[in-house]
Each structure stands twice: as C-alpha cells, then as structure tokens.
Design brief:
By secondary structure, the chain is mostly helical. It has 2 domains: 93 residues, no CATH class; 33 residues, no CATH class. 46% of the residues lie in helices and 4% in strands. The protein contains 4 helices and 2 strands, in the order αααββα. Strands 1-2 form a two-stranded antiparallel sheet. Helix 1 packs parallel to helix 3 and helix 2 runs antiparallel to helix 3. The radius of gyration is 28 Å and the shape is rod-shaped. The N and C termini lie far apart (63 Å). The model has no long low-confidence stretch (mean pLDDT 80).
Length: 156
Amino acid sequence: MPPTDQRRRNWPLWLGSLLILLTLLSNIPGLYASSLTQGILPWVSLVLPAAAVGFFAVGLRRAFAQSELYRGKITGSILGAVGLLLFAGSIWLFSHTRDVPPSAGAPKVGQKAPDFTLTNTGGQTVSLNQMLALPIDSSTGTRPKAVLLVFYRGYW
C-alpha cells in the first residue's frame, strides 16, 4: 500500500459534493420569483442531484475497488447517502408540487371580484365599489376600469 501522502484525491466525490451544494442553493425560494428561472429551476433541481449521485457512484467505486490509490470510503459513503436522499426528495417534490386542489370559492380569471371592505394603510375603510366609483381624473370624470390590490405581510 502506498503512503497516505501519495494517495490521489477522488475528484468525483468532490464534484458530487459540489453538485449537492448547488442542489441546495437551487431550492432557495427567492430564485423562483424571477420569470426567467421559473421553468428551468424545477428541472435543475432534478438534474443536479441525479448527476451528484452518479459522480458519487463513480467515486465510491474508485474508493472501494482501488482503496490503495483513492481516498473517500467513509466520506464518500456518507455524502452518497445524503445525495441519494436529496435526489429522492427532489423527485417526490417535483411530482407532488401540483397536488394542491383548486379553490372552489376563488374568483375565476376575468370574473368580477365580490364587493369587500378593507382598511387601508391610513386606517380608513375602503370598499371595492367605492374604489370603482371614484374618478381617476377629476377633469374628465372617467371612472377606473380595474382596481389593483396589494397585500402587505406586515409593516417594516
């Protein structure tokens, strides 16, 4: 057996570890806010852990078949198990993300919203009918065709 300092690094294990880290980073919710990444990120979240598991398989085969040359039996086994779990979780999430049932009470696209009364940021109550009745331009008296609602999660 060659001395420990002459053993080679098992680069597939390191590459698999990097891909697992990228998989975790690809699941940050803020990345899904961009319209450019919405269609790509779910697929990336499947491909990255699959590639990582493949690199871990190559690295583990090297580590166990040629243990005198390559390092990584213990570390590769642990990281391979984590990668396999992330891959299985990615597949489960990918297949179950659209399982949310549609709301029966929600207005359909193009349908007029029911009248409501809410409190604005100034503490005044405002209704939908009131917002649609107030003229946008006082000189012409034209009423708005639509109202945009913005819901704040809290005050910062």
